Amino acid sequence: MPQITVDHSADLDDRLDRAGLAGAVHQAAVDIVAARIPACKTRFRGVGATVVGDGPASLVHVEIALLAGRTEEAKTALAEAVLAALPGHIKGAAGVHLSVEVRDLDPTYRSAVAD
To answer: Transmembrane stretches, by residue range (predicted)?
Structure first.
């Protein structure tokens, strides 16, 4: 926890600073919702064609799933911090559609490290 997923349009493959963005999101989770760096897990998924409205567009959507118990204010603050950080990790970010969602994990969530 937290489980972080970054979906991005394929045209950003070479323009997205994955390590830098993951580090920024992890640090924001530590600072704002009391996560621990070793518990932060981020995966990046490039998706093919993306369309916004009636035409092709570049986009990045970050989903952060947390164990329940954080206030709505804390989740909103985390979303705003990550949204503000996103352009700094995309080369030529002008015009890229950005979004962030922070939600609670389902109570059945379990995690382990395999032996």
So the answer is: none
- CATH class, domain 3-104, is alpha beta
Contact 4, 63 (CB under 8 A): yes
Tens-place pLDDT, residues 21-57: 999 999 999 999 999 999 999 999 999 889 999 998 9
Q: Which residues of 70-103 are buried (b: 16+ CB within 10 A; e: fewer)?
A: beeeebebbbebbeebbeebbeebeebebebebe
Domain ranges across the chain: 3-104
Residues facing 5 on adjacent strands: 43, 63
* Residue 22 phi, psi dihedral angles, 5° rounding: -60, -45
**DSSP single-letter state for residue 97:** E
17/19 Cα distance (integer angstroms):
6
